[in-house]
Each structure stands twice: as C-alpha cells, then as structure tokens.
Amino acid sequence: MIDFDAVEKLRVHDGDLLVVPESTEQDDMQLLGEAIQMMNGARAVIVRGPIKQFDTAAMNKLGWYRA
C-alpha cells in the first residue's frame, strides 16, 4: 500500500532513477512505472532503497572493475 503522507511531487524525466522505500511491493513499483510512462512518456528505473554510489576503489574491492 502506498503511504500517501510520504508522497512528494516529482518531475520525472526519461532515464531517471527513482528510489522507493524497501517495503514497496513489486506490483506497486510496476504500477508506478506504468503511470509515469502514461503521464509523460518517460521511462524510469525504479529500485528499492537505500541505494548508494560507490567510487572506483570501492567497486574494485568488491570485484567490479571499471573499463
């Protein structure tokens, strides 16, 4: 179920990354993606959070090598 008190206004652009709470159900993520595409034709990547960005050293430590 969506927590409507936590809803914020977003202007989603094509290619944006959206982070939703970890408790978000897969079906709700699918509906959100479909609604975004229907409203403004944008396609967004939707992931469950929290998410953080790794620097090159951290990625290398995990075995992920940047070409």
From TrEMBL:
It comes from Pseudomonas yamanorum. This is Uncharacterized protein. It comes from the Bacteria.
